[in-house]
Write a structure and sequence with these properties.
Chains A, B: Pfam families: NDH2_C (PF22366), Pyr_redox_2 (PF07992). The structure is a homodimer of 432-residue chains. The first copy, chain A, has 432 residues and is an alpha/beta fold. Chain A contains 11 helices and 25 strands.
């Protein structure tokens, strides 16, 4: 991998998401060599992927080049590669571009879509965990509308205009809201010949409430907002299968739909090699102690979505979202430095800053530790927090500009099929 | 194609580039039915493709959704399709989504890369005529640098860092300049471990001057600027072949390079079906009369790059660029309306507004009919003209913001490999 051997201990970080980035920042300018490995050359701001999928934002403005972030940092190395195996005995990671020894390893690989073993759903449903996947959804939505225009068969047209989102967490709720706004403001103008009433947006949630983990007020209000926007919310309904044509459920309702977006679960993106005893099988997260060390492996930390730190307050580990990832990344960096200096490590205490979700224009729900509110003000808070959290001035500025434009003009201009997903051609994308 | 038959004559326009868009605008709100067919659902602002390829701009900000442009226009239809054949006897076009009869046909398919029959070059060299192609170049440049970091073989590293641009027209010159600025400002920061002196940018031109068609002052100054930026300019050198490894020429110089960008020629994107006598074989443009009617076919117009109107001042037809396309599009629309009203048609007279090219920061050349100038002021003029010509307020604003940012910070932040081109993976792109 062409990384020099120095007298400094080497820390290898796998993954440049929220957790990995926070850890890398915490290790800057120390007597250490830091190697960050990611399969993309950019950091993805996942909370805004749904806006890329629905034509509201350009993909490049929610991605930030990882190399740039560490341009001026000494002893820092970035490698574009996928880690295929970890050999804890040899203290070595194996990657698509060679092997690399480590003194400390930080696993920050995040999470991936959990299809719960349903290969049909995996084959036919869309997922939205990366920029290319979001662009695929964007292409598919628009391609389906183009196709709906052409068919004279009403049932086929209904199928093409039927959208099923499985999972009522923040991803599902935000995506359903954004699609509903496309239905309201964009698609009737672009497709005046289509009866827009045929477009259905179904949000299916297996339990009795949306936004599980947020307050019941937030959950109710989010549902309220969605229904006002014309989304059909199905609660206590479980999707059993999707064969590319029909979504079957455990209830009486079946859905004939061309587009199914699976936002019903995530699992840790665990890597081969560590002993099975380190893994919590469902959902494939590494068991870590209070210092984020993988149990039984003193030199390996796991942080963020891929780590499961079980405690009294969080018997199933912390929520798989940005805040625990960032906080664990920061602390893991500090603890590595402490350990090298022979100091005592500090256990992780999650500072829950709350949660929020946006449903549409002027419609958001915010749960702060001491204050829960919904509506216009919540929406501004949501915007401010997300804008502020984006990395890089340029990204912030371009996103702000797009939001202002979209807000004032009731528009979304990035409704472009750059790489067709469905009707593959020379510009297509190889595989889902 | 699900387009209603009305009492109005139907005008079918193939292609939503500069020419097709100008024609469509000229036919708005008339007693006509207009059908615009394009294989993309967006208009591409081709003059800025090179900035997408070199990480300076986001692809979405130089593309504009075609449907949006005609949202409020009565009797206007857009169809996303590729035209496969024209049947002039039946007055019908055949497309990937069905057949469509026309009363008037406007062919505005533009141009495509001309490899002059060299299948090797076609297979291994990159082209830059569309947004996805530009994104491929962007991915390839960055992937080559990532790979150069890894190899310990000096010759391989040199090859990966060697860039050959064939063709010294505006595309080649602008791309070479942009690459040279990446070499100066971006790549040494992102790849501090690579010896940036190994990076070579070769611009090969078969004739004795760059920017053929512009003034000799512009040509000389452009060469001057390029050399100052560190580009190796090779004049009077003809590329004979490229086998994916070595570029061979008719001179003594050969180039071992991983990246070859072919900007040495374009040809009309002619469609099958019209009699061969309508085509000028090299470079596959339709012969048109002074009204842009394809010779011998009274109901078919060809405009823009795909049309060749031979005259005393332009024995080989007009230059294949935006201005003649826009002017011909406007006039073709007027002439169709005149013909329908039984009025006399007006012949096309090209109003040559001049030409310009940018080489880099503060470095551009501008030839106006009465004034030719180069340098900082030319660069501001170039920026202003291009910004003003972009379609849509949002695109203008985002491009302006990016340019300001890049100018002030000496930076380009969209150096992202969203879909890898070379080391294909699950996010890749199917074919070149």
């Amino acid at each position: 991998m062409n990384i020099p051997q120095t007298c400094f201990p080497r820390v290898v970080i796998i993954g440049g998401g929220f957790a990995g980035l926070a850890a890398a920042r915490g290790l800057e300018e120390q007597e250490l060599q830091v190697v960050l490995i990611d399969k993309h050359n950019y950091h993805t701001f996942q909370p805004l992927l749904y806006q890329v999928a629905t034509g509201g934002l350009e993909p490049d403005s929610i991605a930030f080049p990882l190399r740039k972030r560490f341009n001026d940092v000494e002893n820092f190395y970035f490698r574009l590669a996928e880690v295929t195996n970890i050999d804890a005995d040899q203290k070595e990671v194996q990657t698509t571009i060679g092997n690399l020894a480590y003194d400390y390893l930080i696993i920050a690989t995040g999470s991936t879509t959990n299809f719960f073993g349903n290969t049909n759903v995996q084959k036919y449903a869309m997922e939205m965990k990366s920029v290319p996947q979001s662009l695929n959804i964007r292409s598919l939505i628009l391609e389906n509308f183009e196709e709906a225009l052409l068919t004279s068969n009403l049932e086929d047209r209904k199928k093409l205009m039927n959208f099923v989102i499985v999972g009522g967490g923040p991803t599902g709720v935000e995506l359903a809201g954004a699609l509903a706004e496309m239905k309201k403001e964009i698609l009737p103008k672009d497709y005046p010949d289509l009866d827009i009433r045929l477009m259905k947006i179904n949000l299916i949630q297996s339990s009795g409430e949306l936004l599980k983990g947020m307050s019941s007020k937030a959950s109710e209000k989010a549902e309220d907002f969605l229904i006002k926007l014309g989304v059909d919310v199905w609660k206590n309904l479980r999707v059993l299968d999707y064969n590319g044509d029909v979504v079957s459920t455990n209830g009486e309702d079946h859905f004939r739909a061309s587009t199914v977006i699976w936002a019903a679960g995530v699992k840790g993106e665990a890597i081969k090699g560590l002993p099975e005893t380190c893994l919590i099988e469902r959902p494939a997260r590494y068991k870590v102690d209070a210092f984020n060390k993988v149990v039984g492996l003193p030199n390996i930390f796991a942080i963020g979505d891929v780590a499961c730190m079980q405690s009294e307050s969080y018997p199933y580990g912390h929520p798989m979202m940005a805040q625990p990832a960032i906080q664990q990344g920061k602390l893991a960096a500090k603890n590595i430095l402490s350990e090298l200096k022979g100091k005592a490590l500090k256990p992780f205490v999650y500072n829950d800053k709350g949660a929020m979700a946006t449903i549409g224009r002027n419609k958001a729900v915010v749960d702060l530790p001491k204050w829960k509110f919904q509506g216009v003000f919540a929406w501004f808070v949501w915007m401010f927090v997300h804008l502020f959290s984006l990395i890089g001035f340029r990204n912030k500025a371009v996103v702000f500009l797009n939001w202002m434009y979209n807000y004032i003009r009731f528009d979304r201009e990035t409704r472009l099929i750059i790489r067709p997903f469905k009707n593959k051609n020379e510009y297509s994308f190889q595989e889902k």
